[in-house]
Every structure is written in structure tokens, then in C-alpha cells.
Specification:
Bound molecules: pyridoxal-5'-phosphate
CATH architecture of the largest domain: 3-Layer(aba) Sandwich
Strand order of the largest sheet: 2-10-9-8-5-3-4
Number of helices: 14
Order of helices and strands: HEHHEHEHEHEEEHEHEEHHHHEHEEEH
Helix content: 40-55%
Shape: globular
CATH superfamily of the largest domain: Type I PLP-dependent aspartate aminotransferase-like (Major domain)
CATH class of the largest domain: Alpha Beta
Length: 372
């Protein structure tokens, strides 16, 4: 049977997990347009426009701004592989799965990695980070802005102040935060960041926005060794993404980039502030409804993410069976807990196009049904 027949027989699922999120119909429409050549002048225009949208949404003038071909992890890999050389001292602040992934990646590249770990469900502690930064000169300080495994917003602007006058490069994971809460790349002094398309940008997974400051760009240009990953080498990628005459590097995922362009256009059209406000208002609506049902949130209000809401598993509800019923009976996908929080929490996403009052009402009504 053809994939189209198979998929047509599956009911549409409301994606309220930790990503992917639901996609706007106009993004699907953009994806299904005819594929242009990757060096076609019209496609080059689309690349330039996409880059400009990304610069606006990331609040940056960095010329090294582009979507990496691959998911959020490819974005992470791009930042680390371009900035790290063997034995470079790297400090990673960890309070969930994705901070751990950073540690793994930096270690594989031969960095001399120090980590500070914090309890999952709480934010990283700025004072402890400050103390650690006095102990050693680090080339890179890395942290996850929106820790999707717990629903915690880490104090990225406050941490930035710790390295503002240092040579240290500040690297931030914005996979879940981009398009849902503010990211003021230049004002905060972030040197490198990466994101993903499938969270608050509401685009299918497959491209990873990334940006590098001039300071990070210089560090890449002055490396002692070649970037050990050919595909993600920023020196080569920029020759395709910048300048008058573009040089082929790899065949861009053309239709994915149409989709990203349209997803970014929708955010620009709605207005960044309005998009953030919509995420926050729907989060408040959800929390009010959950608390009315006696469901407790994992994270304290002051560091909760609007787009990722972790709840303690309600009394008397079986984790897997509860999620199965939501998926089968109510056509809603939510996320399970990960690592130490497996079996203890559920994660309800309100990302991008999913963050709408009708979806909040739908999940609250479904939860009401499955609670004992
Ligand atoms: C904070 C964070 N970083 C990195 C990733 C990895 O992204 P991907 O799964 O798209 O490779 C994710 C995915 O959920 C994430 O939430």
C-alpha cells in the first residue's frame, strides 16, 4: 500500500508533547511546492530571506546565521564541533537530558569538560556557575535555555553576565525556546546558539537554525586543526550561504527550507511579542485548569516554560495506560517523563501552532475523563 493511503487512514493527532508540534496548513502547502535546484537564483533568494527572518527572530545581526540541515542535535553538533578543539576547557551547566547530551558531545570531541549538575526540575544556579568560573579559564560555557526534559527555563541572560568581559564563548541550546519565549542573542551576548524546527517554530523536524557571533566566527577561523566534521564545517557552509557567488557544499533540503521559511514568515506576520504573549496566555489557561483538577506542576512558577508543562503524574493514573488512552481515545499525544522523572511526570507541550485555547480546552477535557 502506498504511504499516502496508509497515512490517510490515520486520524490526525493533536501534538501536545515535547515536540514535534502541530503544523500550520500553509507550512505543509509550502513543503509540497515543486523542488527547485539548490543553486537556482530563486532558491538563493529564499535562502537569503530565511536567513533574514532568523536574524529577526533571534534578535541578532550575526552574519553567520543559517539553518543547518538536520534536527536540533545536528545544530548542537555544529556548535560544538566548530568551536571545540582537543583539550579545550568547557564548562556545561546541566539540569536535564539535553545538558547531559552536551556533555557527551563535548567529551567525544576531546574537550576537557567540567560540569555542574543541578536537580532536574530546578534551574541551574548562577552563583555556583560564577564560583566555578573563578576556578578555571574556560573556552566555552554552555547551557540549555529551555530544558525540554523538565520544563525549566534556565536564567540565560543572568548567566551571560558572568562571561560578558571574558574570552569565554557563551553557547546556548534554544531548541525549545525559539519562537516561544524571547531570545535576545546580541543584547544578552550569546556567542553561539542552535535550535530546531519542530518545536515553537511549528515546522516539521529536519532543519536546525544556528547563529555565531563575530567572536565565535573568529575562533572558528583561527582553529589550529580543521573542523573534524566535513558536513557541519561552518567555514565551508558559509561559502554556500553567503556572498555573491555561492559555492555548492551539500544539496540543501529544499522543501524543508520552504517549510521553515513559511513557518518563520507566520511568526513575523503575527509579531514576535504577540507570539510570546500567546504562548504565555495559553500556558496560564492550562495551569489554571490543571490546578483546578488537583494536578500539581513539577516546576516552580518563576522558572516554568510556557511551551513545556511538566505535571506530576496524577494519583491512581497508570503512566503508559493514561498516555495510551489520550492517544487512542482522544487523539492527543503528550510526553512521558525521561531519566529520573520517568514514570513520575507527564509533559504537555504548548508549542507554536499548538498553543491555542481550543487545544488547552481539549487536553483539559480529556484529562478530566481519564482521571480516576
Ligand atoms: C532542548 C533540546 N535540545 C536538543 C534537542 C535535540 O533535538 P532533535 O531531537 O531535533 O535532534 C531537543 C529535542 O527534543 C531538545 O528539546
Amino acid at each position: 500500500m502506498s504511504i499516502n493511503k496508509i497515512l490517510n487512514n490515520i486520524d490526525e493527532v493533536l501534538l501536545m508533547g515535547p515536540g514535534p508540534s502541530s503544523i500550520h496548513p500553509s507550512v505543509y502547502e509550502a513543503m509540497s511546492q515543486s523542488t527547485l535546484g539548490h543553486m537556482d537564483p530563486y532558491f538563493i533568494k529564499i535562502m537569503d530571506e530565511t536567513k533574514a527572518y532568523l536574524q529577526s527572530i533571534l534578535q541578532t545581526e550575526n552574519h553567520l546565521t543559517l539553518p543547518i540541515s538536520g534536527t536540533g542535535s545536528a545544530g548542537m553538533e555544529t556548535c560544538f564541533v566548530n568551536l571545540i578543539e582537543p583539550d579545550d576547557p568547557v564548562l556545561i551547566l546541566i539540569n536535564g537530558v539535553f545538558g547531559k547530551r552536551m556533555e557527551d558531545l563535548a567529551g567525544r570531541l576531546g574537550a576537557s569538560v567540567d560540569v555542574l549538575e543541578f536537580e532536574w526540575g530546578t534551574p541551574v544556579d548562577v552563583d555556583r556557575a560564577q564560583e566555578q568560573l573563578k576556578q578555571r579559564e574556560y573556552k566555552i560555557l554552555a547551557v540549555v535555555h529551555a530544558e525540554t526534559s523538565t520544563g525549566v527555563r534556565n536564567p540565560v541572560p543572568e548567566i551571560a553576565e558572568l562571561v560578558r568581559d571574558k574570552d569565554t564563548l557563551y553557547l546556548v541550546d534554544t531548541v525549545t525556546s525559539l519562537g516561544g519565549i524571547e531570545i535576545a542573542t546580541d543584547t544578552w551576548g550569546v556567542d553561539a546558539l542552535y535550535s530546531g524546527s519542530q518545536k515553537c517554530l511549528s515546522c516539521p523536524p529536519g532543519v536546525a537554525p544556528a547563529t555565531f557571533s563575530d567572536k565565535a566566527g573568529e575562533s572558528i577561523a583561527n582553529r589550529k586543526n580543521k573542523v573534524p566534521n566535513w558536513y557541519l564545517d561552518m567555514n565551508m557552509l558559509t561559502s554556500y550561504w553567503e556572498g555573491q557567488s555561492r559555492v555548492y557544499h551539500h544539496t540543501a533540503p529544499i522543501n524543508m527550507l520552504y517549510a521553515l521559511n513559511q513557518a518563520l514568515y507566520l511568526i513575523m506576520e503575527e509579531g514576535l511579542e504577540n507570539v510570546f504573549h500567546r504562548h504565555l496566555e495559553n500556558h496560564k489557561l492550562l495551569v489554571t485548569g490543571l490546578e483546578r483538577m488537583g494536578i500539581r506542576m513539577l516546576v516552580e512558577p518563576e522558572c516554568r516554560l510556557p511551551m513545556l508543562n511538566s505535571i506530576h503524574l496524577p494519583e491512581g493514573v497508570d503512566d503508559a495506560e493514561g498516555r495510551r488512552r489520550l492517544r487512542q481515545e482522544f487523539k492527543i499525544e503528550i510526553g512521558a517523563g525521561l531519566g529520573p522523572l520517568a514514570g513520575k511526570i507527564w509533559r504537555i507541550g504548548l508549542m507554536g501552532h499548538t498553543a491555542r485555547p481550543e487545544n488547552v480546552e481539549r487536553i483539559l477535557a480529556a484529562l478530566e475523563e481519564i482521571l480516576p
